[in-house]
Design brief:
Number of strands: 14
Distance between the termini: 39 Å
Bound molecules: adenosine-5'-diphosphate, magnesium ion, zinc ion
Radius of gyration: 20 Å
Largest sheet: 10 strands, mixed
Order of helices and strands: EHEEEEEEEEEHEEHEE
Structural class: alpha+beta
Length: about 270
């Protein structure tokens, strides 16, 4: 890689969501399920009906603490949940219960990669876009299954310590094995119990300063993650070599075509 003759290096940080293998959801007593008939595991709490009271799942907190211990994190003596407000059809409440400034675990590392934080939150419902095949009143239809809504998630955020697609893929496998051995999650990418976003930037090799990053969203296989990161590094290299600059945005990698498309430019914190 070169920029006016100088070498460029890739800088990668991962945000990993794992569904915790609890019996029930994060804030209600609905059973976790996969593959059951849609909308059969819901209640006023996970549908966000007015007056319902979320109660944190003790086992999910326990699993979160186990993850923190395994990663050598500092466990919070006091940790709280926040409402992260956004509007989307997979979130009937209009907010996700997540952690913001007092996450369950901070710091730590796995192998050569430092952990920034681990926090708990709830999963959104599952949207399926039927497209033209499911047209209702002349519009493309999407259907929603609230069974997944409220599933406990641990979000593990790394520091930007990875330097290549291969290293990111290998490290993610190490994380998966670690989580599997702990017994806190099925960590199955095909079923969505392990999901990964990759943040990617380039900088002059040897520089301490971070370049502008893009975020590749929700990749759901190890092969696609490595291919996606490789494609995004190549796209940024080409952009910079052509005298352009990288803009901060959220991207989607289509494994079928190899294309990278923009989902949205980075919004300001809306919570
Ligand atoms: P955001 O506010 O956009 O979510 P964060 O600072 O919370 O960004 O970082 C999210 C993830 O992106 C972390 O895994 C972090 O290591 C990684 N990251 C942050 N800055 C960069 C960068 N310049 N290049 C690559 N990865 C980065
Ligand atoms: Mg983030
Ligand atoms: Zn429920």
């Amino acid at each position: 890689m070169s920029e006016q003759g100088g070498e460029l290096e890739a800088v990668i940080g991962l945000e990993i969501h794992i569904q915790l293998a609890t019996a029930t959801k994060m804030f209600c007593s609905c059973a976790l399920s996969f593959g059951d008939p849609p909308n059969t595991h819901t209640c006023p709490v996970c549908l966000g009906l007015p007056g319902s009271l979320p109660v944190a799942n003790a086992r999910a907190v326990h699993f979160g603490l186990m993850i923190g211990l395994a990663l050598g994190s500092e466990l919070a003596p006091r940790s709280i949940f926040h409402r992260k407000n956004y509007f989307y059809p997979d979130l009937p409440k209009g907010y996700q219960i997540s952690q913001y400034d007092e996450p369950l675990c901070r710091g730590g590392h796995l192998g050569e990669v430092r952990i920034h934080r681990v926090h708990l939150e709830e999963d959104a419902a599952k949207l399926t876009h039927l497209g033209a095949s499911g047209r209702i009143h002349g519009s493309d239809a999407s259907i929603v299954d609230f069974n997944r809504g409220g599933t406990p998630l641990a979000e593990i955020v790394t520091e930007p310590d990875l330097r290549s697609a291969e290293q990111a893929g290998e490290w993610l496998k190490l994380l998966r094995t670690t989580m599997r051995r702990l017994g806190v999650s099925d960590v199955n990418m095909e079923e969505g119990s392990l999901r990964c976003d990759a943040n990617i930037s380039l900088r002059a090799a040897g520089s301490e300063q971070l370049g502008v990053k893009t975020e590749l969203k929700n990749m759901n296989s190890f092969r696609f993650i490595e291919r996606g990161i490789r494609a995004e590094i190549a796209r940024q290299q080409k952009l910079i070599a052509g005298g352009g600059t990288v803009t901060q945005e959220t991207l989607h990698f289509d494994p079928a075509s190899g294309a990278i498309t923009s989902l949205r430019s980075k919004e300001e914190a809306h919570d």
